[in-house]
Every structure is written in structure tokens, then in C-alpha cells.
Amino acid sequence: MLPGFQFREKDIYEQPDILSLINDPLYKSFVAITLQQEIEAKEKEKKAKEKEKKAKEKEKKAKEKEKKAKEKEKKAKEKERNAKELALKIAEQERQAKDDAIKKLEDALKQAEQERIAKEKLEQLLQDKGIKF
Q: Worst-scoring range by mean pLDDT, 3-7, 13-17, 36-40?
């Protein structure tokens, strides 16, 4: 009837279920071919979905990694900007301190010059009056 068909005598009495027959190498090519094809198609579809899911997860992880890298770069730039601002503030404070010191020295020189002139005028006035000191 079926060329090449063989069977086991015990299977006639035990009557294994269809899934056992499909998985048995002796009966596989003769039993429920359409069912086997459907099962195989479902397995392929399942594997394709798993592969697609893994690809999406991989893409998601890559996007997250890229996002973290951008955030890290943004933080580094902000840190650098803050450091530059701080350096500018320090430089401005130092410049202001130098300007203040120069102003104090100039004021001290001006006062010393005024005192010298006042002393000379006083000495001249005393000499003019004939007072020796």
C-alpha cells in the first residue's frame, strides 16, 4: 500500500498518540504530513518572532546606550563650562584685587605728596618768619 512503510508490532496494540508517531523516525514520513508542516511553520514563525523581538531589544539597548553617551557628553560640556565660568570669576576677582591695591598705593602716594608739599610750605613759612627749627 505505502512503499517503504514499516511498523512495530507493539505499536499496533499500544496505539501511540499522533505526536508520538510524528516524533518517531519510523513513522514520521507517513503520519500527519500536513500537521507536521503546520507545526514546522508555527515553529518557524515563533523563531522569527523571537528573532524580531531580540533585534528590537538590541536596537532599544543601542538607543539607550547612545542616549547615555549623549547625556554623559552633555554633563562633561556643562562641567567644562562651569569650570571656565569659575576661572573667569577668579580672574576677575584677582584683577579687581590688583586694581584695589593699585588705587590704595596711588592714594597713599598722593597723600604722601600732599604732606610733603604741606611740610615744605610750612618750612618755607617758618623760614620767612625767621624761625629756625
A: 3-7
Q: Phi first, then psi: what are they for 63, rounded to 5°?
A: -65, -40
Total residues found in the chain within this entry: 133
Domain boundaries, the chain: 32-128
Report residue 4 as a C-alpha cell.
517503504
Task: Give the integer Cα–Cα distance in Å for 48 and 15.
Answer: 35
Find the radius of gyration of the CA atoms of the chain: 51
How far apart CA 66 and CA 82 sit, in angstroms, is 24
Segment 55-102, tens digit of pLDDT: 999 999 999 999 999 999 999 999 999 999 999 999 999 999 999 999
What is the separation of C-alpha 97 from the centre of its chain, rounded to a whole number of angstroms?
Answer: 40
- Inter-residue contact 18 to 31 (CB < 8 Å): yes
Mind listing the pLDDT tens digit for each residue in 36-45? 888 899 999 9
Q: Is 8 helix (H, G, I), strand (E, B) or coil?
A: coil
Per the CB < 8 A criterion, the answer to whether 26 and 4 are in contact is: no
